[in-house]
Design brief:
Elements: H1 10-19, H2 23-35, H3 39-50, E1 53-54, H4 55-62, H5 66-78, E2 82-87, E3 90-95, H6 98-112
Antiparallel strand pairs: 1-3, 2-3
Amino acid sequence: MEHDFLFASEEIVEKVNETMPPEEEMQDLAEFYKVFGDPTRLKILYVLLCSEMCVFDIAGLIGMSQSAVSHQLRVLKQMDLVKNKRVGKTIFYSLADSHIVNILSQGLDHIEE
């Protein structure tokens, strides 16, 4: 059922309309936060918070197969949460930027309150 009126003042309605990101950005933001909805990916991000590492070491630390870790790293890389560099035959992964550190620490602060 649709209403023909709002209880919010015109000022508030205008402010909301001005600050609301476009639909496409909201979709992108939802996809971004979905990535944080997987405990394995969070573990990988926390490992990389401490140090850059290769798949072999990450897999050993979190007790998963290298292929499972590689799959999750691919997802994290597609969302620009991690980056990699090649040293010889080994690929080392690290957090993409300091925003990721802030997102993780703020999320943890929030649930620990």
